[in-house]
């Protein structure tokens, strides 16, 4: 093949990644190749909590923010949010996707347009969706949006572990700043990062055991200890992703709200989370547990909702994806004296995320579509809330544990105070540096300095024992 042909082939495969020579840079190739896999797309679609929450948010706000509107779907993937938008009556949806999954979406669109199949599956999509193969930051009105300078509504599933991993939220904000019309709608409207101290000896021991290998002084006659310090640092700087039960938590969470409608890109790239927990029982703190909540608040309700989002002790809702009237957006329940009692017998042990079967998804889709379309026909707007907390049904995001290298013993009623600085890194993720201490003391024995790399996630399916009561 000629050099130009080779280059064109690499572009099609997503292998040519130099800046200016393809839809993304070389360092992002593996990321976008991962999202080109239908198997990964299926995992996300089969997360019924995620998919139904987005469907509910779109359909329940159809009259005001989707019907006869121009919509941009940022990071469209397989196009499910674009398709929901058409179901809600969108005039035109621009499905922006940098990975080669856009080719699969184009095939679906072509089929609906009768360009491939005379049967025309999903014929109702005909002429409604335009797949755009580009990074959001490279999209222009002239080249990609048929000359449209603004859109009425932005939608995106731009989320990763702890909300911000993968850094797709920055692309969401880029679309907001360049294309969303004044007063337009953005879904999701906000996200909440939640952190709480935890007691989880099983997982801490699991990680420590891996690090201890490098403490070996006679491995085939070799002293491995020169590797030891780096091994321990590496092990405990790696967040542990997996589901866990609520009974390992030692305090209500501290919550950090990110308002996608107003936050600047710069403030998303570097932010600090203050920490102040009151410990509810004597225990050993092995680290911090993390998860996120998501809010879909239409602009007309944003002022009242933002006041409620500022609550620092909301800890989840009994339902995962609930449709709430404006003033009920923060109807979240604090964990009571017995988490098992307060959450309807939910076990303190973690249950793994299990993809929904196609039958269940069909039933859920039919039921939620009927309910939300009925609401839409009545002309009502509503807000939708979704949680990935350990109090709620597991999702494919699961939760995350940030372990201390040295656990911290605490007594009931003491406070753990400190802060975590979150800064973007070059690996489509964040580096977290924190310091916590008992009652804000400067005593080195009661203080823990922490460093975590959100891009260096490891996974654990260990079911943590509940904290002692």
Give an overview of the whole structure:
The structure is a single chain. The chain is of the alpha/beta class. It has 2 domains: 3-187, Vaccinia Virus protein VP39 (Rossmann fold), CATH 3.40.50.150; 192-345 and 391-459, Hnrnp arginine n-methyltransferase1. The protein is built from 15 helices and 17 strands. It has helices at residues 3-13, 29-34, 38-45, 48-60, 62-65, 80-87, 101-112, 141-144, 169-179, 201-212, 228-236, 265-269, 302-309, 339-342, 358-377, and strands at residues 70-74, 92-97, 129-133, 151-156, 180-187, 190-198, 240-242, 254-259, 270-278, 283-296, 321-324, 383-387, 399-410, 415-425, 429-438, 447-453, 458-459. The strands form 3 sheets. Strands 6, 7, 8, 10, 11, 12, 13 and 17 form an 8-stranded mixed β-sheet that branches. Helix 4 (48-60) packs parallel to helix 6 (80-87). The longest helix is centred in the last third of the chain and has 20 residues, at 358-377. The protein is elongated, with a radius of gyration of 23 Å. Mean pLDDT is 82; it is low at 1-21, 302-349, 358-370 and 372-379.
Percent range for helical residues? 25-40%
CATH T-level fold name of the largest domain: Hnrnp arginine n-methyltransferase1
pLDDT below 50 for ≥5 consecutive residues: which ranges?
A: 1-21, 302-349, 358-370, 372-379
- CATH architectural grouping of the largest domain: Distorted Sandwich
Helical segment count = 15
Spatial separation of the terminal alpha carbons: 69 Å
Strand content: 25-35%
CATH class of the largest domain: Mainly Beta
Main β-sheet description: 8 strands, mixed
Shape: elongated
What's the CATH H-level superfamily name of the largest domain?
A: Hnrnp arginine n-methyltransferase1
Give the tally of structural domains.
2
**Beta strand count:** 17
Radius of gyration: 23 Å
Mean pLDDT: 82
Structural class: alpha/beta
């Amino acid at each position: 093949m000629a050099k130009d042909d080779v280059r064109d082939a690499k572009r099609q495969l997503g292998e040519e990644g130099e800046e200016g020579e393809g839809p993304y840079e070389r360092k992002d190739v593996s990321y976008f190749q991962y999202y080109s896999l239908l198997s990964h797309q299926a995992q996300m679609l089969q997360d019924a909590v995620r998919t139904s929450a987005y469907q509910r948010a779109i359909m329940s706000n159809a009259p005001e923010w989707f019907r006869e509107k121009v919509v941009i779907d940022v990071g469209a993937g397989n196009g499910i949010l674009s398709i929901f938008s058409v179901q809600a009556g969108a005039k035109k949806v621009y499905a922006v996707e940098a990975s080669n999954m856009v080719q699969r979406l184009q095939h679906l669109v072509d089929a609906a347009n009768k360009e491939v199949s005379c049967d025309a599956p999903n014929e109702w999509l005909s002429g409604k969706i335009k797949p755009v193969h580009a990074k959001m930051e490279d999209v222009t009105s002239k080249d990609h949006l048929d000359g449209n300078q603004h859109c009425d509504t932005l939608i995106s599933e731009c989320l990763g572990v702890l909300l911000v991993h993968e850094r797709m939220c920055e692309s969401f904000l880029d679309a907001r700043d360049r294309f969303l019309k004044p007063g337009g709608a953005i879904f999701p409207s906000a996200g909440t990062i939640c952190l709480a101290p935890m007691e989880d000896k099983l997982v801490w021991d699991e990680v420590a055991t891996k690090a201890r290998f490098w403490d070996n002084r006679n491995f085939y006659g070799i002293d491995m200890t020169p590797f030891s310090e780096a091994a321990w640092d590496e092990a405990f700087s790696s967040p542990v992703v997996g589901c866990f039960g609520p009974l390992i938590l030692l305090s209500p969470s501290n919550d950090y709200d990110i308002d996608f409608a107003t936050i600047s890109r710069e403030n998303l790239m570097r932010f600090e989370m203050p920490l102040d927990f009151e410990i509810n029982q004597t225990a050993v703190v092995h680290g911090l547990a993390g998860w996120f909540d998501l809010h879909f608040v239409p602009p007309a309700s944003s002022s009242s909702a933002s006041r409620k989002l500022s609550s620092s002790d909301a800890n989840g809702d009994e339902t995962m994806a609930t449709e709430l009237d404006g003033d009920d957006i923060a109807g979240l329940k604090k964990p009571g004296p017995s988490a098992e009692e307060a959450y309807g017998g939910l076990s303190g042990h973690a249950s793994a995320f299990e993809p929904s079967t196609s039958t269940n998804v069909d039933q859920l889709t039919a039921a939620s579509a009927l309910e939300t379309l009925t609401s839409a026909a009545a002309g009502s707007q509503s807000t939708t809330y979704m949680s990935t907390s350990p109090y709620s049904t597991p999702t494919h995001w699961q939760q995350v544990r940030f372990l201390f290298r040295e656990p911290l013993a605490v007594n009931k009623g003491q406070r753990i105070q400190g802060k975590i600085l979150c800064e973007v890194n070059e690996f489509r993720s964040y580096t977290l540096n924190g310091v916590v201490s008992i009652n804000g003391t400067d005593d080195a024995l009661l203080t823990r300095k922490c460093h975590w790399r959100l891009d260096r996630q490891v996974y654990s399916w260990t079911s943590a024992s509940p904290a002692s009561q």
